[in-house]
Amino acid sequence: MQRKLQFALIDEVDQIFIEEARTPLIISGPIGKSSEMYATIYPLVDQLFADSKNHKPHTKIKKKRLGHICAELKNAVAEAEPHATINIKEKQVELTEAGHEKIEALLHEHQILPEDQNLYDNHHAQLLHYIDACLRAKFILTKDIDYIIHGQEIVIIDEHTGRAMKGRRWSSGHHQAVEAKEHVTIQEENQTLASITFQNYFRLYDKLAGMTGTADTEATEFEEIYNLQVIVIPTNKKCLRIEDNDIIYMTKKEKYQAIVDEIKARNAKKQPLLVGTTSIEDSEYLSTLLKKHHIKHRVLNAKQHAQEAEIIEQAGKPGCVTIATNMAGRGTDIVLGGNP
User: Considering only Cβ atoms within 10 Å of each terminal Cβ, which end of the chain, N or C, has fewer?
Assistant: First the structure.
């Protein structure tokens, strides 16, 4: 039984109060329905888009993650009646009228939907639920970015920490659809019984306090949302960090070549290097490039979480190159020279 919410002291407070403010805390329970239908529906959705020209990216979105979220979308050419429209930025995918007609025909063909009925009949709402979940699994949720496969289990990657969140599952059938996509054991679907966001939960406390090295930039939000003042404590010693200007490259190939050149130059001087990436996919791609140039390095991402302590412990050694996701971000201390 929980005691009265009187006082909370939060470490890395801006991550919890600002970055993850809308992350829900969920109590869930079994829905009591079979999840095997996802294994039946996903191949039909896959068949619907066997031709990569049968879908198009939303015309108004930026190609921010287009290349590595869904490579086939990058150069897709929309047909007169594409089967779906995908909005990568908003993480939404919708069937067009032509797409609905095609998937309905496939359902009739495989005797999932009776010939004299259509997909929009009220008693077929669950079929639409399966289709929507499978569409999201195919185009929005991507291996080594949103999740990894561990044995027969789909493990979610936390977008804020880069860590594998074993035991956490997507709702609304999305997890089951991804399990069908990756041909692993499909587990029972759950339903949300109760939920509350981090923001609303912590506002129930009588008093709040916290600390972080990056609170000043969020001072306005802390005051407006939580009625908290930010006090800046000066560092004990002068900060020696040099902040260079950003460099923008026209292509991914040029950017990664510049990164490799910079690593080679600094590695020749025996400087320890920590190279940050935004996803498991990017960290492994950079690792492949470094291997081609015979540069010894370690990779730290959700797949190597068991070796995290040992990798971080020696990341400061002269000449050590560490490629990491945001796992090596907040609260990670790397000792220059390495630990003895």
Answer: N
